[in-house]
Every structure is written in structure tokens, then in C-alpha cells.
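Try this one yourself first.
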């Protein structure tokens, strides 16, 4: 699960208003729902002063916040004082303070501190607050002149009314209104207020918050949000994408992904959504009336593949803006994902091609965020059959699957022609996972955990991160046990999906510092998204910063050793959509892989692993026209991937600069 301050806080939005009934002395209770399952609660108690006391917590596979917040507000509903304590998502300590008066506003947390003179009616969004904060923001915005407010430390938010729904619970009915808050994340955050303009619910396919007793209304609210979001997405798709009858790139350096080389001064012609011709400048006829793009000083590559995504609808814009034309979704609500994929495929929303992998997990306190659990062979067979009927090509096994059930799932999936990958289940080693039939291992930490089984046999908990941070530096590819393990992976053709960028933030990130995973893009981001990059990663015990860094470097060495041993690697992020892939590839180069080989991994490599290379992954006549034109030469400087100037998906042409403006992102330098 990818959580940011900006998106996470508002995605679980709820207000302390009396929308669920008059607050009782013990407080009003709201259910926190993660992918259909109750995962926590928020309890809001109104204070005589007009402020609120809030308790908020949820459990996400052993992770999750538990905080207490006290808020005081002025007559306009804008907070004047905020005090928060408890622990954050990764169980780090939280101690956050904010105070505002007529002369100044001051804030202090583990991530940031500052003072703003004469702030006026500016709204402070806490770093580690409760969902109440965004409910209060919605209410304050609706009361504010022109429905706009400045944000602290920086930025501005606005709110727009979308539409109404009347909900029923037995004889009781409630009219609620959907509002869209902009200025906080890349896309609008949708919030439901009741007929007194108090918060009622925040809803998404991933996480929702709603008053207890009204959970049955979530599906209706989500449908209403989908309708509004679909209309907006369709408008953007029509405005930002063009489909010329013919398209030609001239004078470009073309990356030949099959040979991992650059073809200089090349012309590529696209017609009918496919590549019609490729050849040296002057040797290829450009059709009359074709749209011609000058590729001088630029490199034309096949569309990029992110092989580890968990899509939400707005991610499509971020992916296409960064040249990612195909993603593999490795765990999502199947109904939500079906809608997203359909909109991308039909062109009613901007987004990449989606390769489907279905998540399976067993019951238990650390179970993954899925609705249906797999605890026996009959449930396993039903789950595999359901995913196969839906068009999924891969099964992803998660950490709470019983070890004895893992080979059964692999056999069932293989019988349906599906690949098998995943986390290594608890009480199994990676070696046992591979011998049990896994075709692929997600996340580099599970490579390291193969040698830490005696330290942490139960990998359902966050110990699967902390044990590697504490002991990863002890593991070296030169060790015989490591060489034997890599030989097994090579023998079995096992694929590795390292997601190094996610671990960089987790192991190296520090609260109050821009995560190194995002340092190159931070200045371009909307202000509240940029703040989220200060969140840090795992709580690091005093004096162990260098150990955690050394363990992270050991993960890079393991990936390099795997590549040198001939083990296939795919480029996945499990991080911020679109923008994180360039950093993932930079980390492969830092580990010692040649940049041209890294580009092949991110293009033809993904297509080959998914057996889609007949149509995708290289720039050849007859293949689908998925292309990205970047300023510079990423085959010599991998960071140039961040400078996409034109992206083509199936013949539809997008200008990343135009998408960036829509999502509030500044130009690449």
C-alpha cells in the first residue's frame, strides 16, 4: 500500500460534525473500511469550545496509525490550534503541534517546522493527523469566499459541488452532496457532506470512512463518484490526446531494445496505431499529410513498462506523462480494476495498458487487503478460476497463504496457463517458494529473507522489513549460500521484481528530509504532494542509520549479482505512479547494470516476461505504436528518462507538458 500525507489523509476524510446524529459524550463512531473489510475506526467527540477530540486508528497488515488529535477552530471553522500524538503508519512516534493567531501561525512536527506571519484564514493540514482534518477542510472551504482557502505551509485549495444522492437505512433517509476538493493532490479529492454541510463520508475502492451503520451505502456513493470522475476523465482524454492518420519521427536516436543499442538519425513512421516503417533518415517514405515530429537531439524508445503497480483511476495521467505505456497491476479490487482498465482501453480516460495479476491471501490479522480469503484447496481453486475468467494472466500469492497451500495454488494457476508470483508466504523460504512452483518473486527483501529464516520465520508482519534492515548487510553475493540460491533461480528461470525504489524510501528516508527516491522530482510537485516526500520511512533506532543504509546497499548488490547470474529482472516500482520508474531504473544503474541493459529491462524485458513481445517492447514494423520521445540520451544518462516530450500509446499522441499542467506538476529541467 502506497500512502502519502496528501493523498492518504484526504482519502480517509471524515469530519466531527453531527452528520451521524448528535455527538454522544463518548463520541461519534465512524468505520474505516479497506477494500471491503473493517480495518479500524475514528471516534470524534465535540468539545464545548467548538473544537474536537479525535481518536483514529486502522490496521493494514500490522501497519497503520494510532493517533489522538485535539483541534480548536475559529468562527469560520478554520483550525487555530492542533495537537496530535501517537504513532504513524510505520509505528514511528508522532508529536505534532500547530497554533495560529492574528499575527502568526507556527507548526512543529518530526517532518517540518515553521512560522508564517499574518497568515489570515489559512488552513493547516497536519502531517500525521486524523481523517477529521480533511472533513474540516471541506466544511471551511464551502464557507469561505469563492470557496477557496490558502493552505499552510503552502498552497491553495478550492471546492466544487458535484451532485446529490438520497440514501436510505431502513425508514431513515439522508440526502448527501458530493464535493470535489482540488489543490491538495494530483486529482480532486471527493468528499460527501450532509444537508447541514457536515461531513458524511469519504469513499474509494481502496479505503473509505463512513458513520457506523451506513456502510451499505458505500457502493452507491462510489458509483456516483465514478460517474463524475468518468465525465471529467473523458473530457481530458478528448482534449489531451490526438490520433493523427499518420505520424513520423525524424532525425531521432532510436533505442533498439532487442540489441540494447542506439540507432542514430532514424525515421519511424506510425499508421493505424502500429509502426509502419523504421529506417535511416532519407530511406523511409513519410506519408503525405503525416504529423512530423523532429527528434533531433532526442531519443525514441519503446513505451516503458512498470511491472509492479496498484492502480487507482488518476494514476493513468501520471503514467502516460512519464512514458509508462504498460503497467502490471499486482493486487487490486477486481471490480475497481476492471473499470479502470476498460476506460484506459477504450480511451475514455488517459492511461496505460494494464496487465492483470490477481492477489490471493489467507485469513488472519495480517491478511492482505482483499475481500475473499483462500484457506483451503477449494477456495484456492475458486479464486484461480475467477481470476482466469476475468482475463487475469498471473496469480500473486501473499504473505498469509498457508505454506502447504502454496504449491497447490501454483499447480492450479499453471493448469490455467497463468504465471505465479508473490511475496514468500510466512514460514517459507524463498527457496521453498521457488521449488513450490513460483515463477517470480516480488520485492528484493524476500531475496534477503531467504537467509534470515531463523531470525524472522513469520514474514506477515513489518518484521519482513526491519529484519532485513538489521541484518541485510551481513548477506553478500560472494557467500556460498547466496551463490547456490542464485543458481537455483537461474535453473528455474525465476524472475525478480525488486522494487528498489520503495525500499530506498523505507530504509534510507528520514523524517524531515526529501526522500532520495523523490529528490529529483520534488521541486516539480504540487505543494502538498511535495510535503509528503518528507514523511520518512521505517523508524530507525538511534545509532543504526548507517546500518540501515548498508543493508539497503546490500539489496542493490543482490540485484546486481542476480543480473550477472543471468536471472531475469523486471522493473516495478510499487510507489508513486509514473514518476518513480525513472528512479527504479537509476538504482539498477547505481547497482552496476549498464544503462542500455536497464532500458531493455524496462521495455522489451517486461513484454517478454509477460509473453507480449510479439506486439510490444520494441520499435519494429508491425508492432503496436507505444513510444516515448525523451530529450537527451538515457542509454548514457538514465536520468534523461524524466524528460519525456512526446508519448504515443497505440497511435494516440500525448504531450507530457500538457498533462503536467493539468495535474499541477512543473516542467522537467
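Now uncover the answer:
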Amino acid at each position: 500500500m502506497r500512502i502519502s500525507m496528501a493523498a492518504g489523509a484526504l482519502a480517509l476524510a471524515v469530519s466531527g460534525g453531527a452528520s451521524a446524529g448528535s455527538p454522544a459524550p463518548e463520541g461519534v463512531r465512524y468505520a474505516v473500511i479497506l477494500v471491503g473489510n473493517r480495518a479500524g475506526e475514528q471516534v470524534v467527540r465535540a468539545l464545548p469550545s467548538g473544537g474536537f477530540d479525535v481518536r483514529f486508528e486502522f490496521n493494514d497488515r500490522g501497519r497503520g496509525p494510532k493517533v489522538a488529535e485535539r483541534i480548536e477552530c475559529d468562527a469560520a471553522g478554520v483550525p487555530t490550534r492542533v495537537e496530535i500524538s501517537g504513532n504513524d503508519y510505520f509505528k514511528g512516534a508522532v508529536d505534532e503541534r500547530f497554533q495560529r493567531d492574528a499575527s502568526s501561525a507556527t507548526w512543529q512536527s518530526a517532518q517540518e517546522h515553521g512560522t508564517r506571519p499574518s497568515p489570515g484564514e489559512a488552513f493547516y493540514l497536519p502531517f500525521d493527523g486524523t481523517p477529521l482534518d480533511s472533513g474540516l477542510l471541506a466544511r471551511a472551504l464551502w464557507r469561505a469566499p469563492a470557496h477557496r482557502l490558502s493552505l499552510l505551509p503552502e498552497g491553495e485549495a478550492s471546492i466544487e459541488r458535484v451532485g446529490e444522492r438520497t440514501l436510505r437505512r431502513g425508514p431513515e433517509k439522508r440526502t448527501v452532496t458530493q464535493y470535489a476538493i482540488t489543490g491538495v493532490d494530483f486529482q480532486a479529492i471527493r468528499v460527501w457532506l450532509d444537508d447541514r454541510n457536515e461531513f458524511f463520508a469519504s469513499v474509494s475502492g481502496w479505503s473509505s470512512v463512513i458513520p457506523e451503520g451506513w456502510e451499505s451505502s458505500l457502493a452507491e456513493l462510489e458509483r456516483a463518484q465514478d460517474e463524475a470522475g468518468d465525465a471529467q476523465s473523458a473530457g481530458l482524454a478528448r482534449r489531451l490526446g490526438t490520433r493523427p492518420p499518420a505520424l513520423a519521427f525524424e532525425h531521432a536516436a532510436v533505442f533498439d531494445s532487442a540489441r540494447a543499442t542506439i540507432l542514430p538519425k532514424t525515421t519511424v513512421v506510425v499508421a493505424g496505431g502500429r509502426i509502419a516503417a523504421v529506417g535511416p533518415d532519407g530511406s523511409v517514405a513519410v506519408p503525405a499529410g503525416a504529423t512530423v515530429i523532429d527528434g533531433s537531439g532526442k531519443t525514441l524508445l519503446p513505451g516503458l513498462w512498470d511491472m509492479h503497480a496498484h492502480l487507482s483511476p488518476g494514476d493513468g495521467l501520471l503514467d502516460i506523462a512519464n512514458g509508462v505505456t504498460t503497467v502490471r497491476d499486482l493486487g487490486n479490487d477486481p471490480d475497481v480494476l476492471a473499470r479502470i482498465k476498460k476506460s484506459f482501453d477504450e480511451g475514455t480516460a488517459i492511461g496505460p495498458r494494464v496487465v492483470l495479476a490477481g492477489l490471493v491471501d489467507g485469513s488472519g490479522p495480517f491478511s492482505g487487503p482483499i475481500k475473499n480469503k483462500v484457506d483451503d484447496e477449494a477456495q484456492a481453486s475458486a479464486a484461480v478460476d475467477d481470476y482466469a475468467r476475468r482475463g487475469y494472466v498471473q496469480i500473486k500469492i501473499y504473505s498469509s497463504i498457508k505454506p502447504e497451500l502454496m504449491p497447490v495454488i501454483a499447480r492450479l494457476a499453471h493448469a490455467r496457463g497463468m504465471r505465479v508470483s508473490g511475496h514468500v508466504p510466512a514460514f517459507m523460504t524463498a527457496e521453498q517458494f521457488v521449488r513450490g512452483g513460483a515463477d517470480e518473486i516480488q520485492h528484493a527483501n524476500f531475496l534477503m529473507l531467504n537467509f534470515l529464516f531463523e531470525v524472522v520465520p513469520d514474514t506477515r508482519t513489518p518484521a519482513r522489513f526491519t529484519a532485513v534492515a538489521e541484518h541485510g548487510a551481513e548477506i553478500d553475493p560472494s557467500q556460498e549460500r547466496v551463490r547456490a540460491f542464485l543458481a537455483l533461480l537461474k535453473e528455474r528461470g525465476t524472475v525478480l521484481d525488486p522494487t528498489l525504489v520503495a525500499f530506498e524510501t523505507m530504509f534510507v528516508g528520514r523524517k524531515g528530509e526529501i526522500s532520495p527516491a523523490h529528490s529529483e522530482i520534488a521541486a516539480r510537485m504540487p505543494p502538498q504532494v511535495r510535503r509528503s516526500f518528507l514523511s520518512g520511512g521505517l523508524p530507525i533506532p538511534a545509532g543504526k542509520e548507517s546500518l540501515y543504509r548498508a543493508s539497503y546497499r546490500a539489496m542493490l548488490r543482490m540485484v546486481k549479482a542476480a543480473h550477472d547470474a543471468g536471472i531475469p529482472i523486471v522493473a516495478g516500482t510499487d510507489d508513486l505512479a509514473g514518476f518513480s520508474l525513472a528512479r527504479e531504473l537509476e538504482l539498477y544503474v547505481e547497482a552496476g547494470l549498464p544503462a542500455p541493459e536497464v532500458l531493455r529491462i524496462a521495455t522489451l524485458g517486461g513484454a517478454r516476461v509477460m509473453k507480449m513481445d510479439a506486439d510490444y517492447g520494441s520499435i519494429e514494423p508491425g508492432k503496436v505504436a507505444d513510444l516515448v520521445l525523451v530529450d537527451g540520451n538515457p542509454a548514457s544518462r538514465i536520468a534523461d528518462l524524466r524528460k519525456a516530450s512526446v508519448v504515443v500509446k497505440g497511435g494516440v499522441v500525448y504531450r507530457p507538458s500538457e498533462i503536467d499542467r493539468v495535474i499541477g506538476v512543473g516542467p522537467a529541467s
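Discussion: The first strand starts at residue 28 and ends at 34. Residues 5-238 form one domain.
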